[in-house]
Amino acid sequence: MMSKPDMASRETAFSSAPFEPAVVAERTVVVAHEEVNSEYRFLAVRASPVAAAAKPGQFFNLLCPEPPGLNPFLRRPMSLYGSDPALNRVEFLYKIVGAGTRGLTQLSVGDELDVVGPLGRGFRFDPAWRSVVLVGRGVGLATLAPVCRAVKAGGANVTALLSARSRAVLVSAAVMQSGGADVVPVFDEDGSSAPAKVERLLRDLIEAGRCDALFTCGSARLARLMKTLALEYDLPAQIAMEQHMACGLGLCHVCVRDFDVGGEIVSRRVCWDGPVFDLREALP
Amino acid sequence: MTEQKPVDMSVKIGGITLANPVMPASGTFEEGLARVFDLNRLGALVTKTVTAEIRKGNPVPRAAESANGLLNAIGIPSKGIPYYLEHTLPFYRQFTPPVITSISAPTVDGFAEIARAMSVPGVSVLELNISCPNIEEGGRAFGLTARGAERVVKTVKAVTKLPVWAKLTPNSHEVPEVALAALEAGAEAVVVANTVLALAIDAETFTPVLGNVLGGLSGPAIKPVNLRHVYQTANRVQIPVIGCGGISNAVDAVEYMLAGATAVQVGTASFIQPNAMPDIIDGLAAFCRRKGIGRVAGLTGALITKSGEKACSL
Ligand SMILES: Cc1cc2nc3c(=O)[nH]c(=O)nc-3n(C[C@H](O)[C@H](O)[C@H](O)COP(=O)(O)OP(=O)(O)OC[C@H]3O[C@@H](n4cnc5c(N)ncnc54)[C@H](O)[C@@H]3O)c2cc1C
Ligand SMILES: Cc1cc2nc3c(=O)[nH]c(=O)nc-3n(C[C@H](O)[C@H](O)[C@H](O)COP(=O)(O)O)c2cc1C
Ligand code: FES
Fold this sequence. Notes:
The complex is a heterodimer of chains A (about 280) and B (about 325).
Chain A: H1 7-16, E1 24-35, E2 40-46, H2 49-52, E3 59-63, E4 76-79, E5 82-84, E6 89-95, H3 99-104, E7 112-119, E8 131-137, H4 140-153, E9 157-164, H5 173-178, E10 182-187, H6 195-207, E11 213-217, H7 220-233, E12 237-240, E13 256-261, E14 264-269, H8 270-273, E15 276-278
Parallel strand pairs in A: 8-9, 8-11, 9-10, 11-12
Antiparallel strand pairs in A: 1-2, 1-7, 2-6, 3-4, 3-7, 5-6, 12-15, 13-14
Helix pairs in contact in A: 6-7
Chain B: E1 11-13, E2 16-18, E3 22-24, E4 45-50, E5 63-66, E6 69-72, H1 80-92, E7 99-103, H2 108-118, E8 123-129, H3 146-159, E9 164-167, H4 175-184, E10 189-192, E11 196-199, E12 201-202, E13 207-208, E14 214-218, H5 223-234, E15 241-244, H6 250-258, E16 261-266, H7 269-272, H8 276-291
Parallel strand pairs in B: 3-16, 4-7, 7-8, 8-9, 9-10, 10-15, 15-16
Antiparallel strand pairs in B: 1-2, 5-6, 6-14, 11-14, 12-13
Bound molecules: flavin-adenine dinucleotide, flavin mononucleotide and FE2/S2 (inorganic) cluster.
């Protein structure tokens, strides 16, 4: 139990160290905004050093412009897709879904975008890992994109199994490839994304000794499969989870999910305790 | 230019003096905000309602947007008394503003139990959440009637020496009477008010949006409603009223104070702008300077009619 610091030490701490925010709420400037395909847009902003220091798996809460007739009152959570601390640049890859993301499409280069972040706990890396396997689908591919570079920087190899409806809506493949990943795309349109086939691919990687850890995001079905494999082969596994949010900062308890911690069901806030969790405890 | 005297931002609520009139609303404040700004800037630290029972809270979805507002049905998840005393309270005690502990219970005896347990060093005030529309079936709450409020406040006052604030519900048709009953039972202040009972429906699926069906509406959408309650209540009771509901900027806070509030609580605005509270504090001081008002407390009840007469009987 923490003890109450006495008045004197508190005042010294207060006066000698000016407050440094770990999370900033700021107006950034749009520096790039491009159509990736019929569903996805790439958005880059110039932000502060605190924001640009975001880690893979962390996210920002965006105050979206109002599209005509709609009022996205709450902020919208978006994962870090890429960053360049030297340029104070933060990047997002978003899928156009409803009021908020439609509002984002109205942004032009030079416009302001109000963001809060970096938020949440990102992916954890173990320097002992020699190879990491990423499995993602849908918007989860945006979340996993910056992981490749981080894993590579730590000296490990990355295999990225990317699942999509069709080749036309696959995202993140190029960025992961340039980040040094061995990219394996699978699709619904040709049947290569079928669960049995993905399971075969994963088992082959694990049995070939090319998987010391599993990361996933974007598909509950894939996550359940990976959880089974992680438990069977006793592999560390992490999942970036989504949940509807309000504050993104742990204040409101809107974003809870259940986890199985050694047989006990506990409720955790996705924005605060996650969004990256131990897949073996998650209930995707 | 002459040097302007700094505005005196302090306000008195019963026996305690706050450095400024701005504090968080219960249930919208957690340690996450300490990453964004220095919590020592706040007038007080109001913690999330805690119950003696361990409560999981409501099923998801727990929130829904509406025009300029938010519906929530969180369901008061609570980790119970020992967790609050061992983790929550020590965290807030690192900071200088007084800690206001919000408590609730499903019964009057339950209120006595938790009030006793929370009357410990480090807690400056007990805020009684007698208003939450989610905690009892069908949205019922003690704060709906004067009799209910009186029973809870009297029972709590009998077991604690701490000042007690009663947090009222805007869903009562007799808010000033409920406030009077709380005052007569010994409350040092009333918080006016909690969320407005509401419903959101998804027309596409024919289903309610919230897991709990009913929820509480908060944010700018309810500001005129709770502002009216503050005005009517402050005119009736001789204890401080703490205004709450849809306050997003300094002007909103000024309006609440003009209507009779001594201090304000800020909830939903922190979800949209996490710096809302420090911005409101700075904005209040700037407003007072611009109007030549030396003490922020001078705003309380300063509403005048169009012909310039006092419109608030404070
Ligand atoms: C931590 C996190 C990271 C995310 N990262 C990305 C990303 O990098 N790229 C991307 O395209 N999408 C991402 N999403 C999903 C994205 O937040 C939603 O698609 C977006 O909020 C939809 O808003 P909307 O107004 O366009 O849609 P609407 O359906 O109109 O939204 C209505 C409400 O539901 C919420 N909502 C809808 N879908 C989701 C969802 N899948 N997850 C959480 N809340 C949702 C909205 O925030 C809003 O409050 C992420 C979600 C989370 C929780
Ligand atoms: C997500 C959420 C959780 C809340 N939880 C509590 C709570 O635990 N106890 C309480 O007294 N009020 C609770 N409230 C009500 C707020 O304290 C406040 O009275 C209300 O939201 C109106 O103020 P606002 O419009 O500034 O948010 C909650 C409100 C929200 C939005
Ligand atoms: S979104 Fe508010 S606690 Fe997670």
